[in-house]
Amino acid sequence: MFKVDYKKLRLSFNDFHIVNDKDMPQYGEYCLLELKTGDYTAGGWLPSENGRTAKGKFIRGTADTVDSKDVARWHSLDRYDLTESLEKEEVNWINIGEEEEGDRNIQFEGFKSFADKKYPKEEQFCLLIMKDGSLAAGRWNKWRHESGGSFIYSSALASHSSDKVWAWTPLSSDEIFAREVERENEKKREKKLNRNPSADPELFKYGMDIDAYYEKALVKLREEFCWATVTMMKKKTPVWQIAPLHGKYVFGQIGKNYYDNSDIVTPWTEGNTADEFIDFLCSYTHYTVEHSNPEEKFKFGTDINVYLETAFKNVKRDYRWLNKKMLTKTWQYDIQRVDGDLEFVRRYRGERKYSVYNVESAEQFIEWVENDYQSVALWENETVASYSPHFGYIDLNGWNLERYDFYKLKSGDYKVSVTAGNRSTGGSRDFFITPDCFEAKTYEEFLDRYLEIVPGYSFGLGKKDLLPDKDLKKFLGY
Fold it and tell me: What does pTM read for this prediction?
């Protein structure tokens, strides 16, 4: 790598350009910026008004810009390659741009390296010397689940990965970095406050174990629902816990901060006493307990095969090619005791652990298994022909219809696949065209039945679109 000692290195920027109508960077050119406040940052130039004036903004990242009216001077970062200088061991001062008499140069030093496990502070905007000898800048964004990070420098999270950076040094603080510093300081203050939190005796008169409050709520719930258990109550999520907040214990729900995985405590605020919280727990979990009656859920007994056989027979009526060998390749089901309560559980073939299949009744469980079996059946039935109706722009409540394809299956049956999406996401869904649709004597009657399965108002094409399509009519055998 380069021979220069980055710890002693100084970069001197000369020949700054004053912001004016006749002397602005090229479109997209990345520049070191001296603000009218005397602070330093950087950004890529995006002119307005066809670039004929100094009006515009320097882009530093998504929703992160500096207006040109706030910039005093700019200096290009894109036009320089420091490789030759950095390969000379004795160099400790590099001039960037021609040094002219009377020109006020700006020096940056105090460079650090990732090789020494030195990292910027989160959201800190930094001047970078890249491993290819070029200059750059960006806002530090630490990777959440692995070491390292990247410097975001443009919109759409365009970034320089830390493994491409030879050395870095901070530029001036700004509002984004200041907010991050304040957030970190708030976390430190909160941590200090919560070292010895106090507990309101009226709020926690039954102790500091949250289960004591769930148990007292359970006694009340059992007056209405004899089958109630704490396990059922805790299916209503997020569950309540006792946690410190601002130096006091509270009843709260704990979530995770996406950015740093720290805890976020949302406190209960609907009362001031333990008994009020217990009454709240009763109302909070009432619906969940009401719809967890074991007699309804396991009305056909606790032999899982009874439920699976019912689901198989129901699906087999329409998906005639389905056999039980196909089902061995997918989900496996069971009835197991979880935290003291019987539950329907399932796991995918090859997985070790079961997960709870949270349903309210035996009929709902069977229906959900049927959906799984139907997906398996369609997956196992090869397609032998396809037809795609023509359509123009179709808006589906903010999504655009992208594909609408009919398929003939190896078994002689048919399915349709619909795909829709917007600029950031999308999805596809397959529908089996059940045999009763083809019992219709006319194509028009067929469409009436078909559109009950794939309604036009939901999936884009209705009767007025499909009825005139003679090729589709022929493809479907009419």
Answer: 0.67
